[in-house]
Specification:
The chain is α/β, with parallel strands linked by helices. It has helices spanning about 45, 85-105, 120-130, 150, 180-190, 210-220, and strands at about 1-5, 20-25, 30-35, 60-65, 110-115, 135-140, 165-170, 195-200. β3 (about 30-35), α1 (about 45) and β4 form a beta-alpha-beta unit.
Length: about 220
Amino acid sequence: MTKNNIEVPSSKLPHGNEKVLFSGNLVNPTKALLLLHGRGATAVDILSITPYLNIQDDVLVLAPQAADNTWYPRPFTELQDVNQPNLNSSIERISTLISFLDSEFKISAEQIALAGFSQGACLVSEYVKHYPKIYLAVAIYSGGFIGEDREVNQQIAGSLGHTPIYIGCDQEDFHIPKLRVSKTAEYLSDHGADVTLRFYSNFGHIIHSEGVDFLKDALSKT
């Protein structure tokens, strides 16, 4: 069952008043999965992976929608300023939903899994970089840190505390430079995460089944 009538806090930022789709346990969840779609896609699109995740009865799934189906306008390897204010609004939207889970259901970060594809993957990686703590799991499907190299190399204090993180990408992905993916994995590992990095051949710009299995296993753990 999917619903979009659960009220979450809104803002006047670009994505702050867009719908959020919910599925799974809508009453008394103890864990949550936050899914972020890619450029030109929708919350409905990213929710399409949930049948493959064997979602347990205690999991609430959230999928926010980006304004005009795009989280930020320019390529993710460009200076962050050229993607404002949309980029900050995207990060704010994740923060709002995580705070909502805590206030509404008493679900803390340690019981929240974050996953995103393409633009959504870039946002997930950028979020956990700037808000380092222990998460249930993080899945970065074809993405990496946002910004130019000097922004990517910026060090943020804090630890991810052995958070399991999967990063998967085609080694020749037209949209995602391999070096950026490697730098993202290295940074997250250096900040305490247990990172699984996978480069694939003839993978394409899609979500690989190994990444789905990673998320399914993480959500099934008690």
